[in-house]
């Protein structure tokens, strides 16, 4: 009987066998051959598996408008602090205030002194709920501000019923005590009859006045 040796299978058989193998390391394939032949194991060639494709997921973060913080000039201390957007709103607020002391702040959104002073003004408004605080944006109400002779920001007017305008001055954070002193002087019990005096005249009498310079921010 002829002696048999094991020889590796032809390549076409090796490839098909390797395709069905589940092992990660190829195993040598053997076949019977006549005696005298030398048997050498030959590893099967495995086809490279395609690299896994990772899907790119796009994540869109939903930003809610309600999470946006209001700008500093949009914050109010309470119901006794009102934003004024027109001359008519200004006159209506003074008329409806009755005998309450009215403190009017003229400010600019670009004014650093206005921004620095604003937190102290809000605190003062909270401490004096009987006083009405009006906020007038200079850029939104330029004609009215020019007629009221507002040239420096922040600028304050004090009104009280039929007594009309009591006082007007500029004030920065460093001089905030001046504002508190004026509140202490003018916030006294008074009995007034009729609308504020001088407000309408101040708005109508300066049509022939020379051109005003733009408002400037007062030093802090």
Structural class of the helix and strand makeup? alpha/beta
Quaternary structure annotation: single chain
By DSSP, the count of extended strands is: 9
> What's the pLDDT, averaged over the residues?
75
Biggest sheet, spatial arrangement of strands:
3-5-4-7-8
Strand content: 15-25%
Largest sheet: 5 strands, mixed
Helix content: 25-40%
Separation of the first and last Cα atoms: 115 Å
H/I helix tally: 6
Work out the radius of gyration.
43 Å
Question: What would the principal axes of the Cα set say about the shape?
Answer: elongated
Written overview of the protein:
This protein is an alpha/beta fold and 220 residues long. 27% of the residues lie in helices and 18% in strands. It has six helices and nine strands. The protein has helices at 11-20, 87-96, 112-127, 142-147, 176-186, 199-204, and strands spanning 5-7, 31-33, 81-84, 101-107, 132-137, 152-153, 155-160, 165-170, 216-217. The strands form three sheets. The chain has a five-stranded mixed sheet, with helices on both faces. The radius of gyration is 43 Å and the shape is elongated. Residues 12-23, 59-64 and 205-213 have low confidence and may be disordered.
Describe the SSE topology:
Elements lengths: L4 E3 L3 H10 L10 E3 L47 E4 L2 H10 L4 E7 L4 H16 L4 E6 L4 H6 L4 E2 L1 E6 L4 E6 L5 H11 L12 H6 L11 E2 L3
């Amino acid at each position: 009987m002829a002696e048999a040796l094991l020889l590796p299978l032809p390549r076409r058989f090796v490839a098909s066998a390797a395709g069905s193998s589940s092992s990660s390391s190829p195993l040598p394939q053997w076949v019977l051959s006549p005696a005298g032949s030398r048997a050498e194991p030959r590893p099967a060639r495995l086809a490279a598996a395609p690299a896994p494709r990772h899907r790119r997921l796009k994540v869109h973060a939903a930003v809610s408008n309600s999470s946006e913080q209001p700008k500093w000039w949009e914050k109010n201390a309470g119901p006794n602090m009102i934003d004024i957007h027109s001359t008519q709103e200004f006159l209506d607020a003074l008329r409806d205030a009755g005998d309450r002391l009215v403190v009017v702040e003229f400010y600019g959104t670009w004014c650093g002194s206005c921004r620095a002073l604003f937190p102290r003004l809000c605190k003062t408004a909270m401490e004096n709920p009987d006083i009405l605080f009006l906020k007038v944006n200079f850029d939104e109400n330029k004609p009215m501000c020019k007629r009221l002779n507002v040239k420096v920001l922040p600028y304050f007017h004090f009104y009280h019923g039929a007594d009309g305008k009591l006082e007007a001055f500029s004030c920065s954070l460093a001089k905030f005590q001046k504002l508190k002193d004026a509140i202490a002087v003018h916030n006294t019990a008074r009995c007034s009859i009729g609308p504020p005096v001088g407000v309408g005249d101040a708005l109508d009498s300066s049509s022939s006045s020379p051109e005003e310079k733009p408002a400037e921010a007062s030093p802090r």
